[in-house]
Each structure stands twice: as structure tokens, then as C-alpha cells.
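## Example record

The block below lists the input lines for one assembly entry, exactly as stored, with component labels intact.
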Amino acid sequence: MLDTLIAGLLRGNVYALGAVGISLVFGVMNVVNFAQFSFFGLGAMLAWFFISTLGFPFWLALPLVLAICAALGFIINISVVRPLAKFLPLAAMLSTYAVSQILDNASQIAFTAQFRVFPQVLPNSNLHIGNMRFGTSDLVMLGTTAAVMIVMSLFLKYGKIGRAIRATSQDQEAALQMGIPVGQVQHVSFVIASALGGLAGVFIALYVGVANPASGLNIGLTAFVAATLGGLGSLVGAVIGGFVLGILEAFGIHFFGDTSRQIIVFVILIVVLIVRPGGLLGKVPLISIEPLTGTFLGKGRPLRIPKWVWPAAFVLIGIVIPLLQNDYVLTTGTQVLIYAIIAAGFTVTAGQAGVLALGQAGPIAIGAYTSAVLTLYLHFSFWLALPLAGLVAAIVASILASPIWGVKGHYISIATLGLGIAIVAIIQLVVPQGIYNIPVPEWFGTALNTPTTYYLIDFGVLVITLVIMWRIRRSHLGKVISSVGSDEVAALASGVRGRNYKALAFAISAFFAGIGGSLLAHQYTYIDPTIFTMLMSLLVVTIVIMGGVGLPYGAVVGAIILIGAMEALRFTPELRIIVYGLVLILVVRFRPGGILVKNS
Amino acid sequence: MNSFIRNVAVASIATVAIVSLAACASGASASSDSSKKSTVYFGVSAAETGPYAAYGEQFKEAFDLAVEQVNAKGGINGHPVALKYEDSQSDPKQSVAVAQKFVQDSSISLVFGDYSSAASIPASPIYTAGKLVQYGFNNSNPDFTLKGSEYQWSTSVTTNSTYEWEADYIKKQGIKSVGVTYLDTADWGIPAYAAFKAEAKKIGLKITDAEGVLDSSDDYRPSLSNAVAGNPQAFVHIGYGPDAAKIVTQLRAIGYKGKFYGGQDEQSFDGTADATGSIAGAEFLETNPAKNVASFVKAFKKKYPSETDVTGFEAGAYDALNVAVAAAKIGGTTRAGILKGFKKVKNVPSVVYGTITFDQSTRRPAAPKLTPTVLKGGKWIAIAS
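Predicted C-alpha cells for the full assembly:
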């Protein structure tokens, strides 16, 4: 028991250090900062480079790493985050995702992707309590967390800028009116957070023993969960969240085994959010501003689409491309179309109901597995399995998601993110091996397994999806769902039960996610849990934001750009991801509300 | 005026969409015209960026070294060899597009990859339809070839054959009976034990008792007492390093003195005092005294001075290119020729197995020869046979 507790404390300490930076930026700017994950990996690699390659002592390398991360953070904030965060936190979030892609890739080009054995600057197994071994390194890390926390809390309590940071995070507009230079405050917070990210990265590498440029992602995600658990914006909460998560995780693994780690992490998160919707120490404002609603829609400059575009697009995508293009374009096209279907369905949740769910990989996986099992073992026809996959995905995802609809704002995003990961982890527990030889679609005995037929099937399903989405938007039901998204309090006052309509919107989205999953399964003819990753969920969200969050047809444009660009940029293999990130940033910079945003 | 601007904007977005599609198309057609007719192109579908990039880099280093050496010796019957890399991030969404791109590129006569099952197997139907050999040299999942078509080949050792080899090797040491523990996991331990058991039965190696265990447990003594109750001559653990470390320690604690077969080149196992003298089969060993291994390791470190270790990943890729070249020398450099070559190729020199000959029914190396290694002073050393 004692061993497990100590293991949990050490683990929790790493999470806590990571969570503080995430929480700081969120509190001041209301932006979820994905670039913070990259600073973990970057900090570790920089420290490795200074110590192992250049032979610097640790105590010189550490401040250098902090300075570089702080400087990078400043540049990122000035060039990307701040111009958007002022009025569109969501667009800023998307661009921090792009920045993290660029940072990871630049770091990979500089340091290569190899796992490096991190220099043992401090002994890490020279002490023990009972059978549990630990080292000076762990104690220094614990001390650092404590010191950072004490300095930070004194700074926030008594420092002039610290007080300005607190004022800004409480009410940005009021702070501005009181003469607080909000811009500078945000710079300072971002710089501190970036330096803390680098610091956490160094200590994570010390703890784990190896590092590579992408190694920040997993611990970063858990740190993010820890920050949410403690209450986004609360620094003490972040530390408590880190330790609580570390300790509960250690005990969970002790009792249920390591295979259930991710399920444990997110079950803890979801349970805490149901009991305390603002996290352990976070405050839930009476009227919370949903990240996707209110002023958001009005900010974009709408593009009115002339009527002739519709038949033209139909002819172009449905007839001209399949006739004229080669199999490579068509295969890329199938991926674009399938993601367009999933994303178009997702606009009900993200755009109309105003819930930025981050876990669409969950219902996609349910759809894929349902369809695979129905056709492979029960010998259903593909055409019957396809709608059933959607139905099962909608039902199962709705049941699993039912407890979380009372959670609000960013918290619901993280809760759904956890839900998506937990669904895939459960599938992995039940069916650890992949499913092979999933039957391809057939039409009266003819196998429809050429790129052209896959393309046409996907196109047909997309057209049906768009028509259904269009009908839903124009129906009474659609208007009610939109009212929840636009102003939940007003909707509630008018007798609309927001919770139920959010759940309904999520079910509709899950239906189309399931359909998309089924299409993927029958095209790949093989599925396993590693296909349905968090990055898949992020891609769906990115497509929707890119196209205009409330517009089903915007999802088509978003999918063409985000999936098409990955292929189109193959002419520059080394810089592919960096250019992709830059394109993303530019699009967000000039069309922050989405390319085809609609006026509210 | 306003509506004019809107129209222009809409038109420009439509153009962007079309141009990006056209860019895909032109990118594909640009790569398909091969001005040098005499060059033989192989495709590589692997992760150059993203979470699996570390492996993609290792493959690339070994491939480039092998190509250099092959071309220095006159290529494939005079045709120089070149590789076309496409980054798939080991993501099925991209690996299927890459597969289609390679299939369409008529200059490509074979494709290596992808890295993970999730990226390789979804691409398999496309390679099969394009009659292009998909050489998943790294796929240890037996189903990659088993459930694939005649176009899927691999030289990676499967978990099954690792433990079949182990049974054979133990028997060859004159051991007649073993006690066994294996990890009770559906995806790895159970099928691996089934393969070991079947082979042991075939060759007459007696299993006195077998116990399923979990790697998360700490106290294995009750299982171990059962496993050694029949006084087996040696002990086998089918699992990973950390669990093997606990098992070997407790095995000695309950007074068992026979040889221990198991463990893994891994920190916690290598550092366990009682683990010394453990024997395991290795696919590739940098310190292998064999001449071709030594010269490969030397050439590799000369070309990449910053690399301190040469691992099985690099060795596997190096072998794979040599196997592909050998197949092309026999069957010809066309797609059909390479497939024909794979069906005929025999005894290709290998830094992993010594030589490679395919078992035509599994499209994997026939009786893959692993290197027996023993743990001495925290390091695995090849046992001279």
C-alpha cells in the first residue's frame, strides 16, 4: 500500500508541474493551449542537447532551457495566440494546435525523432521507503514543484503584475477598464507558462529516463486532465489535481492492472466533473459562456453562397472528379468524404448545440466495430449494417455520455475527450486483437471495392447526410437545438431543457460518426483500436472549425483542405507538417470564424 | 458591389479546393514519369513524422546504407536501385492514399512497409489489387501475411516462431522436460504459449506443468511451486523483461536450480542478479561475431557516426532491401518479376538470421534462425554454436 502511495506521489508530482502552466494560460486568456504539450517535449530535448551533446552542467542547462522556452512562448503569443484570443478563444485553440505541430516537427528536424537516454544528472534510485525505490532526483523535483508553487502564489498575491494577472483572469473587460494593461499581463502569463512547460519537460525526462520530441504528448494529456480535475484557471487546483490523479491512478493500476490505466484516468475525471462541474477548486459561474456560442457566431464575416454553386459542386465532386481523376486522388477523396460525413454530422453538436465535444473517435469506433461484427459474424449485408452501425453508435454513445451533460464550457470538451478515449480503451479490453477480412460492400454479387466505387458510395452517403442536416436545421427541432447553443439561459427561461437537447444533438452526431466508422471499416477491411486515436477526434473538430462551426457543408470544405492538404503537400516531404501548420495558422488568422462562417 | 465581392470570394474558395485536388493529381503524375529507365524503384511507406517517426528514421538509415552497397556492387543486374519515400505517419488514412499512389506509379516495383498493423493491413487490399508486392518487413503480427494475399510478404519473426524456435533450441541442448509460466494475455502470451506447446509436443519436449501468470502480480511463488513440482530439467518463461525479473528471482528463492530460458534485453531484467545465465533467442545481436554482421555494424557506424547502437529495426530494414534485390535478380525488376522472385529466392545472406529462405505457405522466413544469447554481467552475449 505504502509503495503504491509513494509511486502515486512521484507520478502526481510530474502531472502537477505540467498542469500549472496549462491552468495559468487558461485562467488569463481562456485558451486551451496545445502548444504547452510541445514545450514538454522541447524542454526535454533542449536539456538533452545541452547536457549530452554540448557537455553543459545541469545547472547551466536548466536556465538556458527555461529562457529559450520563454522566448519561444513570447513569439508564439505575439504572432499567433493573442491576435485571436482577444475575441475568438476557439480559433486561438486551433492555432495553438497548429503551433504544436510546427514545434514538434522543428524539434524532430533539429534533434531527430530517436528516443534519447536522458543523462542521469541526479541519482534516481539511491533511496527507498519499504520496497519502493526513488532518488534524489525525485526529491529535487518535489522541491521544485513546491518552490514554484510558493513563488507563484506569492507573486500572484503580492506582486503588481501578479495581481494584474488575477484581475485579468477574473474579468478581462473590467480589468481593462481599471487601467490594467491586459495585453502585457497576457504576455507575461504566456511566457511564464512556456518556461514552466520547459521545466516540466526536463523533469519528466529525468523521471522517465528517455525522451524524444513527441514524448510530451501522453504526459501532457494527463497533465491537462489534472488541470481540468483541479479546476481550469486555479493554480492550487492544478497541483492538487496532479497529485490526486497520480495517486488514484497508481492505486487503480494496483487493483485493476495497467491495461485499464486510461479508463481509470478518465473515469476519475468524469466522476469529479459530474460531482463538481467546475473541477475540485474551480468556480462555476452562474452564467457560463460556452466557448462556441454567443458572440462567436457574430464575429465572422459571412460568405453568401450563390445558388448555382450547389449543382456545380454536386457535378464537380460527384461526376467530374470520379470520371477524370486517377485512383490516388479518388482514394484520398474517399478519406475526405468520410471525414466530411462525420464532421457534417458533428456540426449539430458543435455548431447548433454549442458543445465542443472532443471525443468523436469513440462513436466512430463503435460504428466501425458494430459494422464489422454484423457483416463478418452475423453475415448482414453492408447496406443493412451501415445504418445499424450509426444507430448502435448513437445509442451506446448516448448512454455512456448521459451523465456529463450538466458539465459546462471547456469542461464538457475535456469530459467528452475522456469519453472517446475510454470507449476505445474498453473496446481494446474486450477485443484486444484486430478484426480482419471485413467484407467489402457488394451490389447483387459484385464487389464494390475499387477506388471509384468506394468514392461514389461515400459521396452518396455524404449527399444524404447533408440533406438530413439541412432538414434538421430548418425543422422546429433544429431551431430549438440552436436556441440552446445560442443562449442557454434564455432557452432555459423559455422552457427548453438544454441538457436533453444537447444529448439529442450528440446522439445525432454519434449516428453519423458511426456511419463514417462503418465506411472506414469496410474500406480498410481491417480495424484495431490503434486506428481510433485522440488525433482522429481532434481532426474532426478541426475540420468543423475550419469550415465554419455551424455549417454542415462547411465540413466538406474543411475536410478537403485538412485532409487534401496533407496529400497536396507531399511535394515537400521534409517540411510537410510545418507547412501544414502554417497553412492552418494563416487560414485561422484570416478567417477566424471558419471559412464559410454564417452570420448568427 | 457587395455581392460581387462575395461571388469573387466564393469562386476563389472553389478554386482553392479544385487546385488542392489538382495538386494531388499533378503530384502523382509528376512522380510517375521515370526518365531513367534503367533505375529500379522501390517504394517505402513509413512514418517520417509523427509519433512513430523514430522507427521510420531507423529504417531510412539502414535502407540508404543497403542501397549504397547494392549500387556499388552493380545494382540489380546492372540496374541501379533507388527508393521513393512517402510519409504515412503510420496512419491508415494516409497509408491507403500512399498505397494507391505507389500502385499508380508504374516505376515502382515493390513497396516496403508500413510500420504498424493498423497502417499496413488497411493498405494490403490496394497493393493486392495493384499486383504490387507489399513487403511488411517489420510486421511481427502473423496475420499480416496469414490473412493477406500472395502479395504480402514479411521477414519479421512472428511471436509464434520465436517460441517454436525456443522449444527446438531447448531440445537441442539435451533437455527433456521443462516447467513453464506464460503471460495470461489474449493478444500475446496465450498464442505464444500455444505455439511453444505444439512444437514441444512435435519434437518430444515434455512440459511438466504450465502456469498462466499476470505481469502486474508481485508474488509468483504459488504458481512457481506448481510449475517445478515435476522436477523439470529447465524452466521457460514466456513474457517480457520486468515480469521475468521477478519470476527468476522467486524461482531461485524457492530453490529451483535448473537453467532459466526467458527474459529480454531490458534494464530491469539485465540488472537482476539472479537473471545472470538466462538464455533467450535474439533476432539480431550487434555483438554477433558472424562476419556479415560485423561488417554491417561497422559500415553502419561509419555512415552514421552519431549512432551508438545498431538495433533489430535497422538490421531488419537492411535485410529487407537485400532480400528484395535478390528477388529482383531472380525474377526480374517488374512487379510480376519481383513476385516471381519472392517465390523462388533462397538463402539470401541476412544479418538477422544468417540466411533467409521463405516458407511459401506463410510467406515468412522458413524456420527463422534466432541467435541464442546468454546474459552475462548485465549484457547479452551470443552463444557460439
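Chain A touches chain B through 66 residues (CB under 8 Å). The radius of gyration of chain A is 24 Å.
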